[in-house]
Amino acid sequence: MKPQILSTLPGYGGRALLADVVAGVTVALVAIPLSIAIAIASGATPAQGLVTAIVAGFLISALGGSRVQIGGPTGAFIVVVHGVIMTHGYDGLILATLMAGGFLVLAALLRAGRLIAYVPDPVVNGFTIGIAVIIASSQIKDALGMRIADLPAEFLPKLAALWEARASIAPQALIITLITGSLIVGLKRLAPRWPGLILAVAAGSGLALWLGGPVETITDRFGPLPAGLPMPRLPEFTTEKMIAVLPSALLIAFLAAIESLLSAMVADRMIQHSHRPNAELMAQGAANLGAALMGGLPATGAIARTATNVNAGGRTPVAGMVHALVVLAVLLLAAPLAGQMALPALAALLILTAWNMAEPQHWRGYMALPRADLALLLVTLILTVLADLAVAIAVGVALGLVLRGARKVRDRRLRDR
After folding, report:
1. What's the confidence (pLDDT) of residue 393?
2. Smallest Cα–Cα separation from 135: which of 349, 282, 318?
3. Does 10 map to a domain?
4. Which of 36, 146, 196, 297 could be 187's S-S partner, Cβ–Cβ 3.0 to 4.6 Å?
5. Phi, psi of 57 (to 5 degrees)
6. Three-point CA angle 252, 254, 260, nearest 5°
């Protein structure tokens, strides 16, 4: 479980440092609007998203088993975090995140990093698409500037409430959403090395200021961002509350393990290197413990930010540590400016994030899967959207294991003939 930074620092020189600093700054400019948007969608405050990017991002890079992994709050947690906050309050989320961190440390000590291979791909794909649907639907209100006092969390009632409030659509918000989304897509294609996310959100926010009208900013809804980190604290907890949040803690730990190890595997292919899965689990555990103690959100490895890091030239964990320090510098020195981001611009960012999470380029391939695998994907997707994340994962994994066992029995019988 040796952290990768201990393997990369011997012989580390000025050229490598310069490349990592450039990559770290680039990733930070991507992480700032994403962390704020994910926190808002989760029912938390923008500051809690930034704290997570700083604390968890630093620990995941410093202690992790991947050379280039970037950690922080991710879209995969939005639904579960929102549900925990609504049911148990923010202290309940902190407790669940602390417990999840402990489970991840235990998983690392038990050398469970390779168990990711036993989760069927259709379950992961169906679950991811389902989360993307939920995230995108949660952003319609801000994307259209709709006035809804209490938007239901459940998918079908949410759609009904949005339809009933259709008369409150603000044209200014829709214009900002469309322009911001177009800029994000255009800059990614035409200038992939530019910090397109922050530039697009800044342009959308500037347009909101120019247009005027009922377009909310971060400061309008949440108040000013704090110019610094909070003091660490433990939440109040009892045995009853720990039992109550246990399913959520297990789900957070599962999601953190799945997403971080998948992200590390993607990064391996990009840099032709192998990560250390148990060291990565240990880092995820430490990151979630640290983020929770600082009042942050659950965290894991972020595939998009990790890919941005690699494409920007980052090759050692120093880049991820620099990214966290740059986010901290923005919080300390430019919090009022960050607070002027327009919510429709952030909604556009999250809707596109959900689209990318769903990986539409693979949908045609999914349709060509064996019927049993396609059915498993669809069952997981539907349960994720309409039922409950924990139910979707439990049912999907159970059905996947049954399917795998049935195939082994069939193959054995064919060999015996």
Report:
1. 78
2. 349
3. no
4. 196
5. -60, -40
6. 95
Distant-in-sequence contacts of 205-213, Cβ < 8 A, 24+ apart: 205/340, 205/341, 205/342, 205/345, 207/175, 207/176, 207/179, 207/342, 208/172, 208/176, 208/342, 208/344, 208/345, 209/340, 209/342, 211/172, 211/175, 211/176, 212/172, 213/170, 213/172
Residue 298's SS3 state is: coil
Cα 201 to Cα 187: distance, rounded to the nearest angstrom: 12
Q: Which residues contact 189 (CB under 8 A, 6 or more apart)?
A: none
Tell me how far apart the alpha carbons of residues 14 and 26 are, in angstroms, rounded to a whole number: 18
Residue whose pair of structure tokens reads 């989304």 in the numeric block: 181
* CA distance from start to end of the chain: 45
Cα separation, 79 vs 42, in Å, equals 7
User: Quick one: pLDDT at residue 123?
Assistant: 85
List pLDDT tens digits, range 210-257.
887 778 899 988 888 888 899 999 888 889 999 999 999 999 998 899
Tally the domains of the chain: 1
Angle in degrees, CA 308, 138, 374, rounded to 5: 75
Q: Is residue 76 part of a domain?
A: yes
Report d(CA 333, CA 138) in Å as an integer.
Answer: 31
Q: Please give the C-alpha separations between residue 36 and each of 88, 114, 242, in angstroms, as whole numbers.
A: 22, 32, 28
Reference 175, options 348, 340, 352; nearest CA is 348
CA 185 to chain centre: 19
Burial status of residue 271 (CB atoms within 10 A of its CB: 0-12, 13-18, 19 or more): middle
Confidence at residue 417, expressed as pLDDT on a 0 to 100 scale: 66
Tokens 């990214």 sit on residue: 323
Q: Can you read off the two tokens belonging to residue 350?
A: 């999250």
Which among 109, 130, 128, 111 has a CA at the least distance from the CA of 120?
A: 128
> Does residue 3 lie within any of the structural domains?
no
Question: CA 356 to CA 346: how far, in whole Å?
Answer: 15
Angle (CA) 68 282 114, round 5°: 85
Neighbours of 352 (CB within 10 A): 19
- Residue 105's domain comprises 15-226+236-355+365-411
